Amino acid sequence: MLRAVQIGLWALAAAAVGVLAYLQWERSPSPERSVAEDVVALMNGDVVVGGAFRLIDQSGRPFTEADLVGRPTALFFGFITCPDICPTTLATLATLKAQLGPQGDDIQVVFVTVDPERDTPEQLSLYLSSFSLPVIGLTGAETDLAAMREAYFAHARRVPLESGGYTMDHTSLLYLLDRQGRFVEVRPYGEDPQATLAALRALLT
Amino acid sequence: MRAFLFACAAALALSACSQPPAPPTMGPEAASTPEPTRVQLTVTQGWTRATPAGAQAAGGYLVIENPTLEADRLTAVSSPRAAALEIHEMADVGGVMTMRAIQGLDIPATGQVSLQPGGLHLMFSGVTEPFTAGEAIPVALTFQNAGVVETVLEVRPIEGGTPADAAAAAQPEGEAAVAGAPGQ
Ligand SMILES: [Cu+2]
Under CATH, which number does the domain B42-170 receive? Predict the structure, then answer.
């Protein structure tokens, strides 16, 4: 009974987050502001990042915050139909992990889609197999993904393209979590790779 | 009057200033007179990345050089390897990556414009036949003055071309380990 109430509350909360996210992104005349504020807060470590979430990985298995415990994690948001930063982030992590040697294998890389409509577990599985490093690809219901982004102060927005398709604007930061699954810091996209390498190495100590 | 004199003084270094400003001396017709040979706009250094399995989008990168004394404008792009090809501008605005289609791209006279990762690019969508490393993707660019310029984009591997790889290649083996020591 209590469990049912809990689930109900969660569903309500997720719906609220979804509606809020929608309103913020779609109605606000300058949506970049709250996004920018979140990024500053993340960079300064002014916010408590993380929390409960419930998604599924590329093999369809559930993946929750509990799965972030045990190994250090490098997590970022992206989508498959992303021509540049998503493959570049994965390729960069592959290189940096190789530079860390066997110890680097301890770091789990998590790719959270912002485009569940196209990025099904099957598509994620296919896509991630093209990279030389193991990556956990997460997807789920849009409300669950929005709730997860909310917990990580991340943003995503669907933008129509002239060709009839759409693209996704999204937070490009790399989130680093320690072995307890606790947020450590974010690294900006495109920073000096040596700085990212040092940050990854610090996670391993 | 004072302002005119001042303008004259400033312009003196470039040309005589005995008459009130003669407007079209630097116009396009006059400027094109010293053109010695038939120079023309070129498109070079085209490349793209191999598409990961299932990915139907790709970014195309190249350099447009316009040695002529007339500005030009890229107005349309196409490729037989995509359902749609658009000119895009990407920007990382405060930790959020945004991408937009743009209608055209001005190419300044005697200037160049680079399409490169993280910025301007050609956006392939609806790529049903994957791009594999080593092949060449044909692209046609239509310019207002130069007309249609055809080129190919060399397909590079998915991994191995990032700034991290360049840094790793530049750094001797043992040094990387030492550099990270203060991280503890
Ligand atoms: Cu694009």
Answer: 2.60.40.1890
